[in-house]
């Protein structure tokens, strides 16, 4: 086993809440804050904190608009976010392959 691979995991993505957000956004063009909150069963504050961290890293784009006269916040993966997530998944696959019996 090569422990170096585990050390290369992106700590921003690796946290379980942020990994869940990244996974959901990777599967959709964009999702509303409410959709993310409800699907992940997070509080508003917890989700906001994770999204802010991902946004500061440049992984998530946040857009604010109005729908039916109500504020609407939507999130999507940025191009660097998609690339970082793909790299993260590839690294996980390498780690799993190391542990598979031959």
How would you portray this structure in words?
With 102 residues, this protein is an alpha+beta fold. The protein has one domain: Winged helix-like DNA-binding domain superfamily/Winged helix DNA-binding domain (Arc Repressor Mutant, subunit A), CATH 1.10.10.10. The protein is built from six helices and three strands; from the N terminus they run αααβααββα. It has a three-stranded antiparallel β-sheet with strand order 1-3-2. The longest helix has 21 residues. The mean pLDDT is 92.
Short description:
With 102 residues, the chain is α+β, with helices and mostly antiparallel strands.
- Stretches with pLDDT under 50, minimum 5 residues: none
The shape is elongated
**Overall CATH class:** Mainly Alpha
Beta-strand residue fraction: 15-25%
Q: Counting H and I runs of at least 4 residues, what is the number of helices?
A: 6
Query: Helical percent range?
Result: 55-70%
Which homologous superfamily in CATH is the superfamily? Winged helix-like DNA-binding domain superfamily/Winged helix DNA-binding domain
Given helix and strand content, the structural type is alpha+beta
Listing every helix as H and every strand as E from the N terminus to the C terminus, the arrangement reads: HHHEHHEEH
Total beta strand runs: 3
End-to-end span in angstroms? Answer: 13 Å
CATH third-level topology: Arc Repressor Mutant, subunit A
Reported for the largest beta sheet, the result is: 3 strands, antiparallel
CATH-defined architecture: Orthogonal Bundle
Q: Mean pLDDT across all residues, rounded?
A: 92
**Alpha carbon gyration radius:** 15 Å
Main-sheet strand order equals 1-3-2
Give the tally of structural domains.
Answer: 1
